[in-house]
Amino acid sequence: MIKPSINRVSVPQLNFVPVEGQEDATWSRLQWPEDPNKIASSSVLQGDVLTIYYSKIFPPYYDRQNRLLAENPSIADTFNSQYKTSLAVHSFLLEHEKANSSDLDDLEKTEREERCRVAIIASMNAERISKTRLVMADIETTEN
């Protein structure tokens, strides 16, 4: 019988930093590109803290959040929470990959594009979960 190996991974504390737009000093400090379509997030692992910087104007995030706010402002918190959770998981996986990679140059080339793809998926998923929770809350209200 093959015994599965157990790799213990310590999960860092998470620190989310929203970046409001190109005028935000953090945008320049992180050397993000001018085009908001080209950057969704970045992260820095220092000690046991993973800081995740995320663009509040990344179009798929921004558009879905604004649409949800217009439909029902009460689900905006759920949307943002789900979105940030997805970014955190992805950032953690990327940091783990960086720590175990011998070719950091190649990894850095694709990281920004991958972060944008994952952020699109994260915003779609966060929207779906937010709307599902809203429907479930409506059903519970109707039944009572």
Helical/strand content category: alpha+beta
Q: Strands across the major sheet, in which order?
A: 1-3-2
Please count the beta strands (DSSP E, at least 2 residues each): 3
Strand content: 5-15%
Oligomer: single chain
- How many helices? 4
Overall structural domain count:
1
- Rg over C-alpha atoms, rounded to the nearest angstrom: 18 Å
Helix percent band: 55-70%
- The separation of the N and C termini measures 53 Å
Give the overall shape: globular
The ordered H/E elements are: EHEEHHH
Major beta sheet, specifics? 3 strands, mixed
Mean pLDDT: 87
Unreliable stretches: none
Compact overview of the structure:
By secondary structure, the protein is of the alpha+beta class.
Explain what you see.
The protein is an alpha+beta fold. It has one domain. The protein is built from four helices and three strands, in the order βαββααα. Strands 1-3-2 form a three-stranded mixed sheet. Strand 2 and strand 3 form a beta hairpin. The protein is globular and about 55 Å long. The model has no long low-confidence stretch (mean pLDDT 87).
Map the helices and strands:
Layout: E1 13-19, H1 25-29, E2 41-46, E3 49-55, H2 59-71, H3 76-99, H4 104-143
Parallel strand pairs: 1-3
Antiparallel strand pairs: 2-3
Give a quick set of tags describing it.
57% helix; alpha+beta; three-stranded mixed beta sheet; 144 residues
